[in-house]
Amino acid sequence: MPNRLTRPGAFAYAVVTLLLAYEIVWMSRLDGFWTAGPIRAGVVVAIVGVLVVLFAAATVTRTPVVGPGDRLLSRIGGPTVIGLTLVALLVVAFGELDNFVMWPTAPALFAPFTVRRLEQAYFEGVDERRQEAAAARAEQQ
């Protein structure tokens, strides 16, 4: 499996990036979110901002966030996404941010793993087809 995202994988990361960016805009417009405590709300916005930067970098460089590879983003991307999402959820749960729902952040947790599985299946199919084509060429000769 190459250490580079396919176009559909990069598109999936771009969608996650846009959802997270929309979440930042949405949070900044919620009055009740900021009255509960600007520090806690700022921490959540900062965490989502870091996730936006991480997924945007992965989209632009077409580097998988989770997967085998020697690139820094591939090595630390998965644990970083999991850790940041859990910290944001804990801040929301234990803070006074009860009316707030982190809807795109939780699915962003599963997106890198789903993209990795789909791309593995795709490349396994490509390799299988190449082997079948090579066997068919060998039979014809």
Could you explain how this protein is built, in words?
Keywords: Membrane, Transmembrane, Transmembrane helix. The protein is mainly α and 141 residues long. The chain has one domain. It contains 5 helices and no strands. The two termini are 30 Å apart. The model has no long low-confidence stretch (mean pLDDT 85).
List keywords for this structure.
5 helices
Order of helices and strands: HHHHH
Low-pLDDT windows of residues? none
According to DSSP, the number of beta strands is 0
List the domain count as a whole number.
1
Give the structural class: mainly alpha
Mean pLDDT across every amino acid position: 85
Radius of gyration: 19 Å
Proportion of residues in β-strands = under 5%
Name the overall outline.
Answer: elongated
Q: Sheet with the most strands?
A: none
Number of helices: 5
Distance between the termini: 30 Å
- How much helix, percentage-wise, in residues? over 70%
Brief synopsis:
By secondary structure, the protein is mostly helical. It has helices spanning 7-28, 31-35, 38-61, 72-94, 105-140.
Task: Show the helix and strand layout.
Layout: H1 7-28, H2 31-35, H3 38-61, H4 72-94, H5 105-140
Helix pairs in contact: 1-3, 1-5, 3-4, 4-5
Keywords: Membrane, Transmembrane, Transmembrane helix
Transmembrane segments: 9-27, 39-60, 72-94
